[in-house]
Write a structure and sequence with these properties.
This protein is an alpha/beta fold and about 600 residues long. The N and C termini lie far apart (about 55 Å). The protein is about 35% helix and about 20% strand. The strands form six sheets. The chain has an eight-stranded parallel beta barrel, surrounded by nine helices. Strands 13-14-15 form a three-stranded antiparallel beta sheet.
């Protein structure tokens, strides 16, 4: 391809000289240059430049990427992310998140661990059928992946779930570090190699042409053993080799060298994609992931908000925005197919559905990520925003500038509310807009000033809620220092029938929860309860989060350890009345748990069972 050169019209000196090496880049004349010097006012010339932000997503081939600079994003929010305590999602919520991930532009969605429970299998199957056959922006169809341990039962379950997708993938794994092989697997190296080789071959034999293999705890494994086992699974038909730092043990230079050495020493590695999966135990997951990409990995495994086992995973938003912000300068021109303007909506959806709140100082999506309080910083921002912001908030879908000039109040209509929510990164319409509108009007009658944070809280409480089994209609409490607190609660069931109950308690929330229990008649244990004021002032909306566990013991199988774990269910609520906010959260958690129970009953699986 010919080089692109622009010379100064007076001196003739070259101003820009660039030889595009990448057929996926597009060139475009963006502006005409006119010298400010009056002597040269009649001189002008066009400057063609490379717009690195306009890049086509390469056509998908399991073991090959045509563009050497393209990095696939593999999102495991629905699998590893859901292993976070209290992060259990309903099937509807998982489907909603999967649709949002596809809209975001994720290349591969790891939808779950089908062998862990019948509910997870059905959820992955539903995602494969609906999201795995949908066509999204620019014709993108995501790969739908299911996790499986190295055994035939797991692989059969994974294939049963993902085979309905247009692009199905099975991801199988076995541990390769000495500590795991000796104490967990109790297997020799030769046995582990044979198990990995035979199970990858089995996954290919049942019809899956896209098979990913992970040597669990690769960060603490013997490199020479890694080269050997990876070479064997390549021969067996693996198309992607994922290198997990399972316990977050490595540092960036070390992990980057590991990826480089695997690429240099593994037989047949040129015929597969190298991937990374970095845990955050030492707070280095994003740095390690980027180091792996620079060393040659072309698939990066991440989660929304960095949720996951223990300290979590590499954060999708951090990895993607680092590549977007610094990819051209210091990261070798690497880029992704992510539409970053959907990041904020994805973050909020996962936050609400998982019940895991994002800390205010979280990079990219935290409440303080684009806030400036220091006087020196504010002065710089007023003079030029680039003084203290390296990323524009609009890049992730956040727009707090109120460009429309809309100020919402009790006289505002649906269209104004919809426009304002779009500014905040939320695209809503239909029933969701109607439900949010009536909640908004209710608050606007009581509160003079409706802030952006108020709207986000209402959005979370009204739209990001599980499919209701029970719906809160009314709650009335009496409390104080003169006697026991009492509460009366009215709930509506799925058939529209009203149920009323009264109870006493040590406080208004305790009394209200006991009244709910008398109606629902499902014994649960309240594990966590927390409340925060969304904004300043005595009229602030209160946001509540609860975590419950059913006494009947909903269980599933842990993907890595194989242990049976008890499922927990979170719920969130928001209201200007702290008791109503608390009851909303509690009913939301109960709805999640009861929806999960209904799914088990539908598939004729007894409570507490798990498919091993």
């Amino acid at each position: 391809m010919a080089s692109i050169t622009a010379n100064h019209p007076i001196s003739g000196n070259p101003l820009i000289s660039f030889r595009p090496k990448n057929p996926f880049l597009q060139t475009q004349t963006l502006f005409n240059f006119k010298p400010s010097n009056p002597k040269h006012s009649n001189s002008s010339f066009s400057v063609p430049i490379v717009r690195c932000s306009i890049r086509r997503r390469p056509e998908y081939t399991p073991n090959h990427i045509p563009d050497p600079n393209y990095v696939r994003i593999f999102d495991t929010t629905l699998r590893d992310g859901e292993q976070s305590p209290g992060a259990t999602m309903t099937t509807k919520e998982k489907l909603d998140v999967a649709r949002q991930l596809a809209k975001l532009g994720v290349d591969i969605i790891e939808a779950g661990f089908p062998a862990s429970s019948e509910a997870d299998l059905e959820a992955v199957k539903l995602i494969a059928k609906e999201v795995g056959n949908g066509v999204y922006e620019e014709g993108h169809v995501p790969v739908i992946c299911g996790l499986a341990r190295c055994n035939k039962k797991d692989i059969d379950k994974a294939w049963e779930a993902v085979k309905y997708a247009e692009k199905p993938r099975i991801h199988t794994f076995i541990a390769t570090s000495e500590i795991h092989m000796n104490y967990k697997l109790k297997m020799s190296r030769d046995q582990v190699v044979e198990k990995a080789r035979s199970m990858v071959a089995y996954a290919r034999s049942i019809g899956c042409e896209d098979v990913e293999f992970s040597p669990e705890d690769a960060g603490r494994s013997d490199p020479e053993f890694l080269y050997h086992i990876l070479g064997e699974v390549i021969k067996a038909g693996a198309t992607t080799l994922n290198i997990p730092d399972t316990v977050g043990y490595t540092v960036p230079e070390e992990f980057g060298q590991l990826i480089a050495k695997i690429k240099a020493n593994t037989p047949g590695v040129e015929d597969v994609i190298i991937s990374t999966h970095c845990q955050n135990d030492l707070g280095l997951s994003t740095a390690n992931t980027l180091a792996g990409a620079c060393a040659g990995a072309r698939q990066l495994e991440v989660t929304i908000n960095g949720i996951g086992e223990r300290a979590g995973n590499a954060s999708l938003e951090e990895v993607v925005m680092a590549l977007k912000c610094r990819g051209e300068q210091v990261l070798g021109g690497l880029y992704t197919g992510i539409n970053t303007q959907h990041i904020l909506m994805s973050s909020k959806m996962v936050e609400e559905y998982s019940g895991l709140h994002v800390q205010p100082h979280k990079a990219i999506v935290g409440a303080n990520a684009f806030a400036h309080e220091s006087g020196i910083h504010q002065d710089g921002m007023l003079k030029h925003k680039d003084t203290y912001e390296i990323i524009s908030p609009e890049d992730i879908g956040l727009n707090r500038a109120n460009k429309s000039g809309i100020v919402l109040g009790k006289l505002s209509g649906r269209h104004a509310l919809q426009a304002k929510m779009l500014e905040l990164g939320y695209e809503i319409e239909g029933k969701e807009l109607d439900d949010l509108f009536w909640r908004f009007k209710s608050v606007a009658e009581k509160k003079k000033k409706i802030t952006d944070d108020d709207l986000i809280a209402l959005m979370s409480d009204e739209v990001f809620q599980p499919q209701f089994v029970w719906q809160l209609q009314n709650v009335q409490v009496t409390c104080g220092s003169l006697g026991l607190s009492t509460a009366t609660v009215k709930l509506i069931d799925a058939d529209g029938q009203e149920h009323i109950s009264c109870s006493v308690g040590t406080g208004p929330v305790d009394a209200a929860y006991k009244a709910v229990d008398l109606i629902v008649k499902v014994p649960v244990t309240l594990l966590e309860y927390s409340m925060n004021a969304v904004t300043q002032g005595i009229d602030a909306i209160a946001s509540t989060r609860v975590l419950i566990r059913g006494e009947n013991g909903h269980t599933s199988t842990h993907a890595l350890t194989g242990e049976t774990v008890h499922r927990t269910f979170s719920g969130t609520g928001a209201d200007m009345d702290i008791v109503i906010s608390s009851v909303r959260a509690y009913v939301g958690a109960l709805n999640k748990m009861m929806s999960f129970r209904k799914l088990l009953a539908k598939n004729n699986k007894p409570e507490g069972s798990a498919v091993i």
